[in-house]
Design goal:
It is a single chain. This protein has about 700 residues and is α/β, with parallel strands linked by helices. It folds into three domains: about 150 residues, Arc Repressor Mutant, subunit A (Orthogonal Bundle); about 240 residues, Rossmann fold, CATH 3.40.50.300; about 250 residues, P-loop containing nucleotide triphosphate hydrolases (Rossmann fold), CATH 3.40.50. Helices cover about 45% and strands about 15% of the residues. It has 29 helices and 20 strands. The strands form four sheets. A six-stranded parallel beta sheet has the order 7-6-8-9-5-10. Strand 19, helix 27 and strand 20 form a beta-alpha-beta unit. Helix 1 packs parallel to helix 7, helix 12 crosses helix 13 and helix 19 runs antiparallel to helix 27. The longest helix is centred in the middle third of the chain and has 22 residues. The protein is globular.
Length: about 700
């Protein structure tokens, strides 16, 4: 019997048989289990409802439904459940396919019809705590009960969200840091020479704003100079510090690759500033004291297989300044841990593109915090301060109306892209603006030799061909294969120890030129299918063995779990290659910054093949040529932010490969909206 028929019998026909019979907890749990069998819910979602019923046999059926749907929402990245929307338009909230709507409505017709009735049932359950009531460690929290938009939380996410809000409010509204304004003005003028005819220099504004507070956000698209600005901010902090050699600075990012790129960018920018600084400051020596950029997991002392951290409020980080790049990837739980571990006096600077994909885990923290970034909303005090300290006049359209949020005074959006331009940038802007017609027109105008190109429809073999040959002057994996095949000569070289390192670097560099980015993991248009297809293609061409097994020369892998003992972290990408040691055992080589790091294949357990990867996993990386592969089975995963993020991973060429010609328009028209109460906390509607 098919899953579809199974659902028909047990939901539609079951309820139709006794239209007047009240729904029971047992019948609801049966339906939820069937939905899990059909893939509409996770078994984990149903397990929460089952557990609630075990703890409270008198629980009302709608509470069990709300709990399962809350767990499902959390699994999709939302931090809470909008109860009124769930009651009124369940399919819109849950994002289920239209074919599943009859099953949903069949149950919904048996449940209370108003939000007030659901609220009453939830408040009657001893396992649900109203946020205004005494805390007895209930697993569910009901917030904003008296508003038109009540929210239901899993306790853990309620705690994380209120803690993040409390920390940010405290840092955003705390008394400003004492600084010599005249000295700051002089240094800012040296770091940012006035360009003739230029408008407001938002990079200079960002430095001035960050200088006066303990929390700041610098956001902007690719090429707007976020790390360039952060480097000048760091130089400014050194220059205005009473004892710059005592300033403790840490750099961090969610992934190892992003952390290495941050460190490299900061170092390069600061070295370029040494001539500007002259003898007044030994930037090179100060930079050496900063040390390597670390992943957030490493920085916070993540403990394997637990939710506990080595650093926290009781044992804070030993830092005065912390700069975190790729902040869009920082999920709610991680942001809560980071803020909790930061000493009260320390400055936190978040860098990131607010329009990129949010993290896979729950929360869209940077997106929430940057709600006002586009509009500015600077109050008179901020406008005057920027004019005084930076010599910049914030244009009137960015001044605040009657209400000027405290967070907006610490947030600056960089608005001019200095590196990212041409057709790729135009396409990214059109997608980000939700302009379907412009996006399609840009792609229609371009051919195989242009920077952007689209192929829609047809067999997946087109993607396989692109992965090998590339298109026009845009490369695929062929240069990587050619570099890999040079091993035959390297192996026979009398000076193999000398030549080996150069060859490893050549292979890694060739591989990093191109990448297949997927919307989904499963299926022939997903990560699993394309990894298998590329591997089979390389085997057929003789680049790798015909039956390579798990490990083979040239296997690219992505680390999926942090392992500090091995020096590898989630998101790191390495390539399995013969070593220069006798017998040439395979090792996986990672390029960390400018240093090669090798790990025996026998010690790497938590890895996956990486010819293709999800768009989520690509954040923090850039490739000469990026191919974004859209599957018709992507469902609700397919959205505007996913396409925008895929486009902005490309430096020189971008190719869109879509299984169906309609997928691009569908994605652009579907911006991702994660449900969160963070802004309501920050605005005082929800109380911590």
């Amino acid at each position: 019997m098919s899953r579809k028929r199974h659902l028909d019998i047990h939901t539609l026909e079951m309820f139709a048989a006794e239209p007047a019979a009240p729904v029971t907890a047992h019948s609801v749990l049966e339906v939820l289990r069937l939905w899990a069998d059909a893939g509409m819910l996770r078994r984990l979602d149903v397990a929460l409802a089952v557990w609630l019923h075990e703890q409270d046999p008198q629980v009302q059926p709608c509470v069990l439904v709300a709990a399962a749907m809350l767990a499902q929402m959390e699994g999709r990245g939302h931090s809470c459940l909008p109860l009124a929307d769930l009651v009124a338009t369940p399919n819109a909230v849950l994002g289920w396919d239209a074919e599943n709507l009859p099953h949903l409505l069949a149950l919904w017709e048996r449940l209370p019809g108003t939000c007030a009735q659901w609220l009453q049932a939830l408040q009657a359950c001893p396992l649900v705590r109203a946020a205004t009531e005494a805390d007895r460690a209930q697993p569910l929290v009901l917030a904003a009960v008296d508003s038109a938009h009540p929210l239901l939380y899993l306790r853990r996410y309620w705690d994380h969200e209120r803690m993040v809000a409390a920390h940010i409010l405290q840092r955003s509204t705390a008394a400003g840091v004492q600084l010599p304004e005249q000295a700051a003005r002089e240094w800012l003028d040296r770091f940012f020479p006035v360009a003739s005819g230029a408008g407001c220099n938002w990079q200079k504004v960002a430095c001035a704003v960050a200088l006066r507070g303990r929390f700041s956000i610098i956001t902007g698209g690719p090429g707007t100079g976020k790390t360039y600005t952060a480097a000048r901010l760091l130089a400014l902090l050194f220059a205005t510090a009473a004892q710059p050699e005592q300033l403790r600075v840490a750099l961090s990012a969610p992934t190892g690759k992003a952390a290495a790129r941050l460190k490299e960018s900061i170092e390069t920018a600061l070295k370029d500033l040494q001539q500007v600084v002259g003898d007044a400051l030994d930037l090179e020596a100060l930079v050496q004291r900063v040390g390597a950029a670390r992943t957030l997991h490493s920085l916070l002392g993540a403990r394997p297989d637990t939710r506990h951290w080595g650093f926290h409020a009781g044992r804070p980080l030993d830092v005065d300044v912390l700069i975190v790049d790729e902040a869009s990837m920082v999920h709610l739980e991680m942001m809560s841990a980071l803020l909790d571990a930061l000493p009260p006096h320390a400055r936190l600077v978040l860098l990131g593109d607010k329009d990129q994909l949010a993290s896979v885990e729950a929360g869209a923290v940077l997106g929430d915090l940057c709600r006002d970034a586009q509009m500015g909303r600077y109050d008179a005090a901020t406008v005057d301060y920027v004019a005084r300290v930076a010599g910049e006049h914030i244009p009137a359209p960015f001044h605040a109306d009657a209400m000027a949020p405290a967070l907006a005074q610490q947030t600056v959006m960089l608005r001019e892209s200095r590196r990212f331009s041409g057709p790729i940038a135009e396409l990214a802007l059109a997608v980000n603006a939700g302009d379907v017609a412009r996006s399609q027109a840009l792609l229609a105008e371009c051919g195989v030799y242009d920077p952007v190109f689209m192929q829609a429809g047809g067999a997946v073999q087109r993607v396989h061909q692109l992965a090998w040959q590339g298109r026009g002057t845009a490369v695929g994996y062929q240069p990587f294969a050619q570099a890999l095949q040079r091993w035959a000569a390297i192996e026979k070289a009398s000076d193999i120890a000398v030549q080996h390192e150069g060859w490893v670097r050549e292979v890694i560099t060739a591989f990093e030129r191109f990448r297949l980015l997927c919307a989904v993991r499963e299926g022939e248009w997903g990560v699993a299918g394309l990894n298998a297809a590329v591997q089979q293609l390389l085997a057929r061409l003789g680049v790798i063995p015909k039956e390579p097994g798990e490990w083979y020369r040239g296997r690219p892998v992505m680390v999926t779990r942090n392992d500090a003992a091995l020096g590898v972290f989630n998101g790191d990408i390495g390539i399995a290659l013969p070593s220069a040691a006798p017998g040439h055992p395979l090792r996986v080589y990672f390029l960390q910054g400018n240093q090669l790091h090798a790990v025996s294949v026998a010690r790497l357990v938590h890895v996956e093949t990486a010819f293709a990867m999800t768009v989520h996993k690509s954040q923090g990386s850039e490739f000469e040529h990026t191919a974004l592969v859209l599957s018709a089975k992507a469902g609700s995963v397919l959205g505007r932010e996913l396409v925008y993020t895929g486009i902005t991973r490309a430096r020189s060429a971008f190719t869109l490969m879509a299984e169906d010609v309609r997928l691009l328009a569908q994605a652009i028209a579907a911006p991702t909206r994660r449900v969160s109460g963070l802004l309501r906390f920050l605005e005082g509607e929800l109380k911590a």
